[in-house]
Amino acid sequence: MGYASKSPWVIHYDGSSCNGCDIEVLATLCPGFDGERFGVVNTGNPKHADIFLVTGSVNAQNIDVVREIYDQMIEPKVVVACGICACSGGIFQDCYNVLGGVDKAIPVDVYAPGCAVRPETLIDAIVEGVAVLDEKAAQMKSAEKAR
What is the reported pTM? Predict the structure, then answer.
């Protein structure tokens, strides 16, 4: 039984965005786009989350927070960079305080570009993230059997 058979729990963190992507993340999980039909549950606790949704770019002020949330998540886990700022730094990439996208702080599994990212893109990214969770869970299981 893989992760596709359970509800993926997500945790959302806004790195430093204009809030456009944050609004789209919330719209994705609300009844209009109904991300919950896929069993997606929004949680505020990294220890309960399977998927880490990050909006905004990484800077000197938030890089430690992003890493701390990621480190608190239990394996297997997936990171989704939501929006072009999270993917690459976006229009803010040349700003003095921006280090770049989320991949400057933690490994990213799924990129969901857009300015602002569309709810349909986020749903696709979460579904892709569930597939990545299945792969990671299978790898962990085979590694345990090899011991």
Answer: 0.92
